[in-house]
Design brief:
This protein is α/β, with parallel strands linked by helices. Helices cover 31% and strands 17% of the residues. It has 2 domains: 2-77 and 232-257 and 270-300, no CATH class; 112-229 and 309-402, HAD superfamily/HAD-like (Rossmann fold, 3-Layer(aba) Sandwich). The protein has helices at residues 66-77, 93-110, 118-125, 154-166, 177-184, 234-248, 275-287, 311-321, 342-351, 375-391; strands at residues 2-4, 27-28, 51-52, 129-134, 169-172, 190-193, 198-202, 214-217, 223-227, 255-258, 263-266, 292-297, 300-305, 330-336, 355-359, 370-372. The protein has a 9-stranded mixed sheet, with helices on both faces. Magnesium ion is lined by residues 135, 137-139, 336-338. Magnesium ion binds at residues 135, 137-139, 336-338. InterPro entries: HAD-like_sf, HAD-SF_hydro_IIB, HAD_sf, OTSB-like, Trehalose_PPase. It comes from Marchantia polymorpha. Belongs to the trehalose phosphatase family.
């Protein structure tokens, strides 16, 4: 579910105070170079270079802002739930754990383990071309405090490489494409960064599949295809990232990540009492950019172009590029852990013949039909898939131009 700013353009008020108990006073520092050409008005943004706000005059954060409260509630809902006793009190840690285990078991009734169901799933896969789509953070790598250190293990990399040897394989991530590539470092994959707004992959895969699309050479001279449906938004995303970096400076732990067509605001290292002030600053910036929209992830808010494009559309685009969009003998498999992966789960569920798999250690509302607990189970699933494929060479259907 995405939140889109429906407001008329309102210029950010650099003098707006914000604070909250436990959250230090703000000192907004906004460069005059951030003057925007995008707000739909001829008015020019001119900010003073640095506006220190005396702590005495700071008022409490406006947490009555319904839009901001909605974002925070939805973000908190992504975190493991706290269980209360029948009397309304919070349970002790052991009882909390037992309640979470019971809830997860019940949830698994509706979203069975893709590993436990593997043999049954593969009965459906017989004779079909499997195409593998993988989210990165929380799926191939563990969720870590510092997003710059979300490394995947060498064993996971080797496993994904093997998967790509047998099946067309794509990474679909909210991160910038280059950043995901730096983490994964496998040239044989397709990469859809910025929630699929920046797609690139080999023109001809090691598994024999050829992709159609705009062709170019990558830095190493390899022929690639690429697709960037939101390219006109690039200068705007640079501008928004700079604004947010300036505004987030005074909030300890806040991290702004430029993911090319998506700016990610990380809350993971921010104390919960500072979430409101940070979210308010995001809202202030977003108000000036009606062409952008806000989406939620696991302890992140993300700003991206408000175009009809998401991970689901990226999956459909890649299937079409590979000549695998309409055929009955294709079986896409999508693994992801995040709210933004739900668009892909829905797209695949609509298609009918597909496996949508949520990676989660807690029960949560999802469109995915199946589940895996964590990246280690993802690795076991992928290794099992490779072994299955090696045992069923006849199950591979041919690339479109050879049918
Ligand atoms: Mg993820």
């Amino acid at each position: 579910m995405a939140w889109r700013s429906n407001h008329q353009a309102v210029y950010p008020d650099p003098s707006l105070p914000f604070s909250s108990p436990g959250c230090p006073s703000a000192s907004l520092s906004i460069s005059s170079t951030t003057a925007s050409s995008y707000p739909p008005s001829s008015r020019t943004l001119t900010f003073s270079k640095s506006i220190p706000i005396p702590s005495k005059k700071i008022e409490a954060c406006n947490t009555q802002n319904k839009e901001v409260l909605g974002w925070l509630d939805a973000m908190k809902a992504q975190s493991p739930p706290r269980f209360e006793s029948y009397m309304g009190g919070v349970l002790d840690p052991k009882a909390q754990e037992a309640a979470a285990v019971a809830q997860y078991s019940a949830w698994r009734e509706n979203h069975p383990s893709a590993l436990e169901m593997f043999d049954e799933l593969m009965e459906e896969a017989a004779g079909k071309q499997i195409v593998v789509f993988l989210d990165y953070d929380g799926t191939l790598s563990p969720i870590v405090e510092d997003p710059d250190r979300a490394y995947m293990s060498d064993l996971m990399r080797a496993t994904v490489k093997e998967v790509a040897t047998h099946f067309p394989t794509a990474i679909i991530s909210g991160r910038g494409r280059e950043k995901v590539y730096d983490f994964v470092q496998l040239a044989e994959l397709y990469y859809a960064g910025s929630h699929g707004m920046d797609i690139m992959g080999p023109a001809e895969g090691c598994n024999g599949f050829k992709a159609t699309g705009t062709r170019a050479k990558d830095k190493k001279g390899n022929e690639v295809v690429f697709f960037q449906p939101a390219s006109k938004f690039l200068p705007m995303m640079d501008e928004v990232c700079k604004l947010l970096e300036d505004k987030a400076q005074s909030i300890p732990g806040a991290k702004i990540e430029h993911n090319k067509y998506c700016v990610t605001i990380h809350f993971r290292r921010v104390k919960e009492e500072c979430w409101g002030p940070l979210a308010e600053q995001v809202e202030i910036v977003l108000k000036s950019y009606p062409e952008l929209q806000l989406t939620l992830g696991r302890k992140v808010l993300e700003i991206r172009p408000a175009i009809e494009w998401d991970k689901g559309k990226a999956v459909e685009f890649l299937l079409k590029s590979l000549g695998l969009e309409d055929v009955d003998d294709v079986l896409p498999v999508y693994l992801g852990d995040d709210r933004t992966d739900e668009d892909a789960f829905m797209a695949l569920n609509d298609r009918g013949k597909a496996f949508s798999i949520l990676v989660s250690t807690v029960a949560k509302s999802t469109n995915a039909l199946y589940s895996l607990r964590d990246p280690s189970e993802v690795m076991t699933f992928l290794q099992t898939l490779v072994r299955w494929r090696e045992g069923h060479p006849q199950s591979l259907c041919k690339p479109a131009d050879e049918r």
